Amino acid sequence: MPLTDKCLYWLGKDAPQASFFEQVGIVGTVADLPDVWGGILCINVDDPKEQNDTLKDMFSHPKFWSWSVYVGHDTPYSECLSDGVFNEKLAYEQWQNTKVKLSKITDRSKMEPLVGWLGINRHRRIKPVKLVESLSVYRYPIIEALYPELFSSYRFIVSETKREMLEAETLVDRIRVCKQCNGGHLNYVEVCPNCKSIDIDVQTSLHCFTCGHVGEQQSFLRRGKLECPKCITQLRHIGVDYDRPLETHICHNCSHLFVEADTISHCLSCEAQTEISELIVQKIYQLKLGQLGEYVYQHGKMLQAPELSIKGKVDAGYFENILLWLNKVALRHDEEHLLLSMHLPRLEEYSSLYGDSKLFALLDQITNRLNGLFRDTDICCQYKQDLLLVLMPKTKLSTMPVLQDKIEKLTQLIEEDLFTLHVSAFKIPDPTLNDSVKVWLAETVGSIYGSR
Ligand SMILES: [Zn+2]
Ligand SMILES: [Zn+2]
Ligand SMILES: [Zn+2]
């Protein structure tokens, strides 16, 4: 196995005689590739599915975000993951540029894979692919490959765009998805506005002025003339004896005559019937690195001094350090602080019932309400997806009932039936916290989850 850093790795048939690269190393699978940063691979296989699977497999291994990957033949899927169709000269030049960028990253192992992947090659974009066999129709292969444990790549995109890790570049499509299962396979069907039956037809009716009878045109035909089947009046002149009603549809279920049918959506995946206006609209974008993403790429980490309020909540690592420090200060100076936890136990359920966009709207509402409650000196952290921790310096546990009352009043303002919030409080200092803040928090979080 050649291991020079000018080696092109080749998976599949027709390995070229290299002129720009010093060597060509043939590999059978992704597992044969060396464990190095910033290599280059070309996948040249006939079966598009094998090519797609190999690409996906590759990006699910750490480090490979730093590699350049080319393919023998383009597919819509490979366009989302590879750097294009292999051309030795172009690939070599791009690879050199990529390696220069990579060499400037000081701690590659700590780099967020997606940020690193986008940062070292500025031609790269997060692209959606349309997969008709998939529930959500549109998927983001690079997100799914780099973060295989994610439940929804769309939700990831929405939240990362919101905090400006990513930035939307081009709108690719706008789709409607089922509010129950987020499925994109919907059938739009016209129904009776009265009883919602799908058993409706177009029908031309006549309206007899003499007796007021309305019926299908066919039933008025007698011996080649128009005659009302009810009052036997001959209908000679339209507008004088009879007219055609505006209602041109009939329901075979309830006999209702109507002008215009209602349209509802029928989810082909979960059978849910939904009014069109209640479907969730998803905007499918092609994306690039956002402002915060650029910062993280340049500095290798999150902002060091975030605003100490829920408006600019801190990340988990930062929160742990502050908690440990405050605990030590409290022990030494005999002070008392409060750690408040807010658990939103039905968040996951909410998301599966109403969809991602509504979940984010709810989180927004919660944030807005809570922003008014805390002081500038309180430090807030979304420690788990459904768990907010707030560190309130110089607050005694005895003030908890007042606080809880306030929070309850605020949450009652949130207009969602499913919304519940459980508040618990913990006294700081706790001498056992000094041993390991991570273990202490894990136990505390466990007790919060366990008590429900
Ligand atoms: Zn009907
Ligand atoms: Zn009549
Ligand atoms: Zn559905």
Features:
single chain; alpha+beta; Alpha-Beta Plaits; four-stranded parallel β-sheet; four-stranded antiparallel β-sheet; 12 helices; 23 strands; binds zinc ion; Diguanylate cyclase; Nucleotide_cyclase; Rev_trsase/Diguanyl_cyclase
Q: What do these coordinates show?
A:
This is Diguanylate cyclase. The chain is built from 12 helices and 23 strands. The protein is α+β, with helices and mostly antiparallel strands and 452 residues long. It has 3 domains: 7-175, no CATH class; 186-275, no CATH class; 305-450, Reverse transcriptase/Diguanylate cyclase domain (Alpha-Beta Plaits). Strands 2-1-3-4 form a 4-stranded parallel beta sheet, with helices on both faces. The chain has a 4-stranded antiparallel beta sheet with strand order 21-22-20-23, with helices on both faces. Strand 5 (129-130) and strand 6 form a beta hairpin. Helix 9 (347-354) packs across helix 10 (356-371). The longest helix is centred in the last third of the chain and has 18 residues, at 316-333. The two termini are 56 Å apart. Mean pLDDT is 87; it is low at 303-309. Bound molecules: zinc ion (3 copies). One zinc ion binds next to loops.
